[in-house]
Amino acid sequence: SSRRSLLREVSDATTRAAMLFVFGAVLFALMGQRMNALRIEAASRPMRSFALGLVGGVATLAGIALIGITIIGLPVAAVLILGAVFAAYAGICAVLATAGKALVGHKTENPHIHLLVGCALFLVSGAIPFVGGLVTLAVVLMGIGVVVATRGAGTFQPNSGRISLAGPYRT
Q1: What pTM value is reported for the model?
Q2: What confidence tens digit (pLDDT) does each residue in 70-127 have?
Q3: 153's torsion region: left (phi>0), alpha (psi -120 to 50) or beta?
Q4: What is the distance in angstroms between the CA of the first residue and the CA of the last residue of the chain?
Q5: Which residues contact 139 (CB under 8 A, 6 or more apart)?
């Protein structure tokens, strides 16, 4: 039974890494520029991404809890949860691709190979008893942080800071 449970854990971990690779490969194929923006942020400021991930994760949970208090806000909160999970996984894939590029970037420029190496590294490091949990926490927080730092990979543009009393069509 212990052998069977060990095989089950290895199978589950491999399946999770494979699904993460497939999700990331689809994101790189469909949203290459936005994923590259996430990768650049992860490579240029990793500790800032980690800190923003911690703050952004707590703020997201608090915001969703506040929205979900009312019955009318429950569907909105459900949609926000789905969007937050999708964005977090996109950030995680970008972080893993960045780690893969650090390892094999001198051999190839293919982001799918970088993602594959990053997912394999994540799989192997997740198997280490105490270190695996810390690595997973760091990757998840960095993934959330790169999404927060890039404002959803360019989805939300910053406010110009100007308030026009004449309206948007007058100069």
Answers
A1: 0.84
A2: 888 889 999 999 999 999 999 999 999 999 999 998 998 899 999 999 999 999 998 8
A3: left
A4: 76
A5: 92, 95, 96, 122
